[in-house]
Design a protein that fits this description.
Structural class: alpha+beta
Shape: rod-shaped
Strand content: 25-35%
Keywords: Membrane, Transmembrane, Transmembrane helix
Distance between the termini: 149 Å
Transmembrane segments: 32-54
Order of helices and strands: HEEEEEEEEEHE
Number of strands: 10
Number of domains: 2
Radius of gyration: 44 Å
Helix content: 10-25%
Length: 168
């Protein structure tokens, strides 16, 4: 056997690459307490903003209200019998006539109506008054039946259902 000596191929060697380190810039050291404070501030502001956003999208709360009740007496000029209502110059005083409630400044707060009249005397009627959803708050209320002018009613009397209006 003839021995042939084969030389293995020389391994390819790549040239070494030089690693060049960049000089580090000036290092900034932040105190731990300052970093914690900034993180806490940002987190707190986020929570406050979230709560504010959620609360502003909620429905506003409706003011507390009451139903103003009482009576309207028409002393003269009424028709008694099956239908008790004003006649002549009082024909606007009848079941369904408007009742408007105002605040101290004259702003309309609520509206309601007169109920069906009942004979009170030989020539008189009495009508129940109901005005729902009157906002609480004013120290006194002004009440007007039809177009007959406003009367003032203290807060306590209005909320207790002590409206008593008379005409004629």
């Amino acid at each position: 056997m003839d021995e042939t000596t084969a030389t293995p191929p020389a391994p390819t060697v790549e040239p070494l690459q030089e690693v060049v380190e960049k000089p580090a810039g000036p290092s900034v050291r932040v105190p731990v307490w300052l970093a914690a404070g900034v993180v806490g501030f940002v987190a707190g502001a986020g929570v406050v903003g979230l709560m504010w956003g959620l609360s502003s999208s909620a429905e506003p709360t409706a003011p507390e209200t009451f139903t103003l009740t009482g009576s309207m007496s028409l002393k003269t000029g009424s028709t008694t019998g099956a239908v008790c209502a004003g006649r002549g110059g009082y024909s606007d005083i009848a079941m369904g006539a408007s009742v408007t409630v105002y605040d101290e400044g004259g702003r309309v707060l609520a509206t309601g109506t007169l109920g069906g009249g009942k004979a009170k005397s030989l020539d008189g009627c009495e009508f129940p008054v109901t005005v729902p959803n009157v906002p609480k708050g004013p120290q006194f209320y002004q009440v007007e039946v039809s177009h007959r002018g406003k009367i003032s009613l203290p807060k306590a009397d209005a909320e207790a259902g002590l409206l008593a209006v008379s005409l004629g």
